[in-house]
Amino acid sequence: MKSYFIRTFGCQMNKHDSERIAGLLESAGYVPACGPDVADVIVFNTCCVRETADERLYGQVSSLKALKTGGRPDVLIAVGGCVGQRDGEAVLARAAHVDVVFGTHNIHELPALLDAAESGRPSVSILEAGETFASDLPQVREKPWHAWVPVTVGCDNHCAYCIVPSVRGPERSRPMEDVVAEVTTLVADGVVEVTLLGQNVNSYGRDRYGKPRFSELLRAVADTGVSRLRFATSHPKDISDETIAAMADLPAVMPYLHLPVQHGSNDILKAMRRGYTREEYLLRVGKLRDAIPDVALSTDIIVGFPGETEADFAATLDLVERVAFDHAFTFIYSAREGTPAAALADTVPREVAQERFDRLAALVRNLSYASNTREVGSFRECLIGGASRRDSAVLGARTPHNRLVHLPLPTGESAAGLAGTTRLVRITAAHPWFLSGEFADDSR
Ligand code: 5AD
Ligand code: SF4
Fold first, then answer.
1. Which strands make up the sheet holding 228-232, listed edge to edge?
2. CA distance 164 to 157
3. Whole-angstrom Cα distance, residue 45 to residue 399?
């Protein structure tokens, strides 16, 4: 029996696609391998949103050359996802030992492409647009109790820095009945937490029903009885009052929102073509906090976009401080070929961008630590993920606000047995990036 190993880069959509790739390969008779060294097929599911992920991919793919020229000439290497979609045949020019290249719209073709590559000739197939949603394919969930469910694919926004529209295509929404039917099946299969996925979930339905209907979708999905409902990613210009009201009304929707702001300066937001001002962003945050006072907020921020002055950067710091994000993912701008921003002059020198990035990272760390400190002493219903990667005597769990909690594994219990269960936890200590806690007994 042949075995496979998948290495995934990038966003949650890619993690979901990898679960579908695993499902397809297992339906075709492959079994999971414990690592790349022993696998018959190695699949790279790739990301090209930033240069770093791109470079890491080509680095890892070329390090496998030794495997092929060494003892394992028959191992097949497949490169799929966003880099496959963008580079197509050109992947072979950079890494001639790759056997299969596929894209974001044709993961269902992978088993056939692998069969074709067995003859010794590379097989490359890229489609320009997809007809099917990956969810129509079989899946092997990484965690049996959690499922990613795409509600839209692609993006119509064309932010100046972003490669996504060119690798994922225009936005397409899945019919509401299909989403609800899938979640109903997942709940019956024991799934406790569902994350609805899309590059911009808030505009869900615009292409299909003529107006965004994300709030209706949230209500319909909550009606399936799923215990915990999350969604990503939200675009600040499209998050509606109705969606905020649905988040506040529905107990299954977790009190956490990832709302990428990208920048704090109106000039840069305009150059980025984000479609909102800092004042509009702050207004949305105010509405969210009025409706859900304890909502946890995270964001994405880019430092060093072309033309960014020290005053623009100060506006980012100011906005981050004003919102007091619970967490932020921070990135140094990298020009992506083919995006409008790649042609902009007035680039920020690398050292300047790095120095600003370091100042922002320090602020983010302080805010995250302050936010975690406010949690100490609280009781939270936590979903247990399993043993921590570093220490098998420690459990990792998530609070409703998406904070990571480390807990000692109680004697007599197994991490595998507790994984996927929800337990009341008392938060005992705060650290910058996680909390410590212990199981609360019922006598509190
Ligand atoms: N350079 C740096 N960061 C980027 N992102 C997207 N494109 C770029 C780029 N060209 C960041 C944005 C986005 C996150 C997924 O990656 O902050 O929200
Ligand atoms: Fe990366 Fe964007 Fe592709 Fe996700 S959709 S893997 S973030 S390029």
1. 146-150, 193-197, 228-232
2. 10
3. 29
The architecture in CATH of the region 143-254 reads 2-Layer Sandwich (3.30)
pTM of the model: 0.95
Q: CA dist 139 to 18, 43, 145, 220, 266, Å?
A: 9, 16, 13, 23, 43
Mean of pLDDT values over 110-131? 90
State whether the beta carbon of 161 lies less than 6 angstroms from ligand 1. yes
**How many whole angstroms from 332 Cα to the centroid of ligand 1?**
8
Query: Two tokens at 61?
Result: 């793919």
Give residue-wise pLDDT tens across range 238-270.
999 999 999 999 999 999 999 999 999 999 999
3-state DSSP assignment of residue 65: helix
Rounded distance from Cα 197 to ligand 1 centre (Å): 17
Q: Cβ of 94: how many Cβ atoms within 10 Å?
A: 14
* CATH 2.40.50 correct for 379-439: yes
Give strand pairing partners of 439. Answer: 425
- 159 within ligand 2 shell (Cβ under 6 A): no
Contact 278, 264 (CB under 8 A): yes
Residue whose token pair is 């990667």: 389
Identify the nearest ligand to the CA of 236 by its number.
1
Topology agreement, domain 143-254 and domain 256-279+288-374: yes
Which runs of E-coded beta strand occur in 292-375?
296-303, 327-332
Q: What is the mean pLDDT of residues 407-429?
A: 94
Q: What is the pLDDT averaged over residues 140-153?
A: 95
Instruction: Tell me which of 3.40.50.360, 3.30.750.200, 3.40.50.300, 3.30.950.10 is the CATH number of domain 256-279+288-374.
Output: 3.30.750.200
Give the number of other CB atoms < 10 A from CB of residue 109: 19
Q: Is 305 in the pocket of ligand 1 (CB under 6 A)?
A: no
Q: Is 82 in the pocket of ligand 2 (CB under 6 A)?
A: yes
The distance in angstroms from the start CA to the end CA of the chain is 54
Helix axis angle, 214-222 to 241-249, nearest 10°: 10
Tens-digit pLDDT profile for residues 314-348: 999 999 999 999 999 999 999 999 999 999 999 99
Cα-Cα-Cα-Cα torsion 420, 425, 428, 434, nearest 10 degrees, comes to 30
Q: Look at residue 444 and tell me whether its pLDDT is greater than 50.
A: no
Q: How many CB atoms lie within 10 A of CB 409?
A: 18
- For residue range 160-205, list pLDDT tens digits in order: 999 998 899 999 999 999 999 999 999 999 999 999 999 999 999 9
Cβ 327 under 6 angstroms from ligand 2: no
Which residue's structure tokens are 């963008």? Answer: 86
